[in-house]
Amino acid sequence: MITNDILYVGVDDRDIDLFEGQFVVPNGIAYNSYVILDDKIAVMDTVDKRKGTEYLLNLEKALGDRLPDYLIVSHVEPDHASSIRLFLDKYPKTQLVGNAKTFQFLAQYFDLNFDSVLTVREGDTLLLGKHELHFIFAPMVHWPEVMFTYDSCDKVLFSADAFGKFGALDANEDWTCEARRYYFNIVGKFGMPVQTVLKKAAALDIRIICPLHGPILSENLGKYLDKYNTWSSYEPESEGVFIACASLHGNTKDAAFALKEMLLSKGCPKVVISDLARDDMTEALEDAFRYGKIVLAASSYNGGVMPFMEDFLHHLKGKNYQKRTVALIENGTWAPSANKAMTEILSQMKDITILDTAITLRGTMKAEDKKALASLADRLCTS
Ligand SMILES: Cc1cc2nc3c(=O)[nH]c(=O)nc-3n(C[C@H](O)[C@H](O)[C@H](O)COP(=O)(O)O)c2cc1C
């Protein structure tokens, strides 16, 4: 129970191998859905059809002998909407509520009778009894049709995918870490639209945030709003340096670890290294956004850069990576080419400062390489 009238009817999914076909979720994922019980009953979204049967049982229990009047569709993505067919087979008289885009997209997934739907516009309200629902459009957070719903009676914001996180509800883990990985990998490209909806939300008296994934947020809401403000404005969140490396034979990786030791010994508060070939790419992406300074260290490869690094940089570009200071380290035997290849991709991003400290290793680290790394460490500690 979330309030006296709002019940949780979502489900945990711990069997899924990859969320959205690409993200590892070691602690699963929750598909959240809610019921508002009033003179009229509104259900807030459904769940992935992978868990449709379990969902309908939860719903039935929450409804007792009553029937839902409305199904509010805040996001058409299948992890929330693919049980709508199942839902309507059981509750055929329920009216679907969405905006024009909601129904345009739903028609791509379902053969529905769209004559009976209720199409809302930005700022429209729906009265259930004492609960009045206000529709707040949030286009591109993270699809074009996304809308938030604010219940002015219980002061609850149903925030669609915003404020969500990876991890089933019964996972005992920190919110920030998995919410950050979720944000940058799923919503990260859309910083401006998130800023726009945060401004709309600032005008509301919000006591509880009910996202479509992850825990219901009811305490210290400023913390979550602040994180979203930092993330969506592409500002660094933590002091420190992130080193991403891709190394064929380990020499560049050795240099990355040597640099880490130097940075720590010079007082850098935090240094995180990711081996892009072995570590989770989505965590590397998260760390690249978390810190303000990053070092890219890679082997030269066929006149370019090792493909894991190339892939990583394309991921960053796709997520609108910006406002960061970058240092480059390459390794090559006959014609080192990694720094040039990395610079080319970085030059397509906004507001990236590449330090004039580029280092070229040839095979193993030599004394002069260690000196160059030490002066890079100085520069990173002072810039
Ligand atoms: C398939 C392949 C392609 C390579 N391409 C280049 C290249 O274009 N230019 C170059 O200078 N070295 C090239 N190298 C050599 C590596 O960059 C070199 O061995 C480097 O020292 C590897 O650093 P690492 O020990 O960190 O992997 C290539 C090596 C391999 C196996």
TrEMBL record:
InterPro entries: Flavodoxin/NO_synth (IPR008254), Flavoprotein-like_sf (IPR029039), Metallo-B-lactamas (IPR001279), ODP_dom (IPR045761), RibonucZ/Hydroxyglut_hydro (IPR036866), Rubredoxin-O_OxRdtase (IPR016440). It holds the Pfam family ODP. GO terms for molecular function: electron transfer activity; FMN binding; metal ion binding; oxidoreductase activity, acting on NAD(P)H. Residues 241-381 form the Flavodoxin-like domain. In the N-terminal section; belongs to the zinc metallo-hydrolase group 3 family. This is FprA family A-type flavoprotein. It comes from Parablautia intestinalis.
